[in-house]
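Protein modeling request. Please complete all fields; requests missing the sequence field cannot be processed.
Requester role: graduate student
Desired output: 3D structure, token encoding
Chains: 1
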Amino acid sequence: MTPDPLLSIGELARRTGLAVSAIRYYEARGLVRAVRSGGNQRRFLRSDIRRLSFAVIAQRLGLSLTEIEAELATLPLARTPSRADWEKISGRVRGALDARIVMLERTRDLLDGCIGCGCLSLDRCALYNPGDRASRAGAGPRFLLGDRAADFGEVST
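Delivered output (157 residues):
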């Protein structure tokens, strides 16, 4: 017996682990699109399980909802996405994830020391960022963003 190609919002919630209200929110944002039954109830394609599962995982990986919407917009709504469809998304998302991994590793490694924010509040700031030289590169945590003390002139020892 072939399963029904359409799911109620409750069934979709059970399959994805999302609250019904979250599914309605994602529907309002265009990540999934419901069709209406004869009784005017929302029905979702079985392939929406994958779309919403991707959204859940992508958010946990740090992608913004805007990034997720952009990726899901490349998938067909009228058919189940193919392996090739998902591989294209994977290729695009991989670069963003790799950049986040680098940032996370750098943050982990610098978290207990100076991250080059220019605050000069740590004793080490006078050593690595004398006179707040890092501010020449712009706002924010310069060393965390990839700048090095050596980029701003000689480092005192």
